[in-house]
Amino acid sequence: MSDFPNNLNYATSHEWAKLEDDDTLIRVGISDFAQSQLGDLVFIDFPEVGKYVKAGEQCAVVESVKTASDLFAPVSGIIIEVNHQLSDEPELINDAPYESWLFSIKADNIEELSALMNADAYQKLTEAD
Fold first, then answer.
1. How far apart (Å, rounded) are the C-alpha atoms in residues 21 and 110?
2. How far is the C-alpha of 48 from the C-alpha of 115, rounded, in Å?
3. What's residue 51's pLDDT?
4. Following DSSP, what letter does each residue of 96-116 receive, concatenated?
5. Looking at residues 28-56, what average pLDDT do you find?
6. pLDDT of residue 1
């Protein structure tokens, strides 16, 4: 059974998005469901800081012992930070997927978050998979 925190928004591609306190910063990670499907993570290809991404655009890759999986931007904006700790310890995502954010986006429009799912809707999606 996967865990789905209510304070996050979820994409159908299994990224989570968390609006931080300044109302334009969005932290992005992968869901517990996604990490459990991928297995042990071994490498992350982060997006470039300063790159502009559009919502739904492929911007990063996570690799596990099983496969590689593309990650998509949940909102449009500029990549302002990546979590370099995960470069050396990608397994932290397996251990704590909701504490292990991958990158941050300075969002053009936080209203794009409303296009994502809440925890209940995301749980229903994962039960269908």
1. 12
2. 25
3. 98
4. -TTT---EEEEES-GGGGGGS
5. 97
6. 47
Give the C-alpha separation, 29 to 127, whole Å.
Answer: 20
Q: What is the CA radius of gyration of the chain?
A: 13
User: 80 with 122: CB under 8 angstroms?
Assistant: no
- CA gap 91, 74 in Å, rounded: 23
Average pLDDT score, the chain: 95
In the chain, the amino acid numbered 89 is E
Q: What is the CATH number of domain 13-121?
A: 2.40.50.100
Distance CA 34, CA 19 (A): 20
Instruction: Give the 3-state secondary structure of 36-48.
Output: HHHCCEEEEECCC
What number is the average pLDDT over the span 2-19? 93
CA dihedral 36, 49, 27, 1 (to 10 degrees): 0
Confidence of residue 21 (pLDDT cuts 50, 70, 90): confident
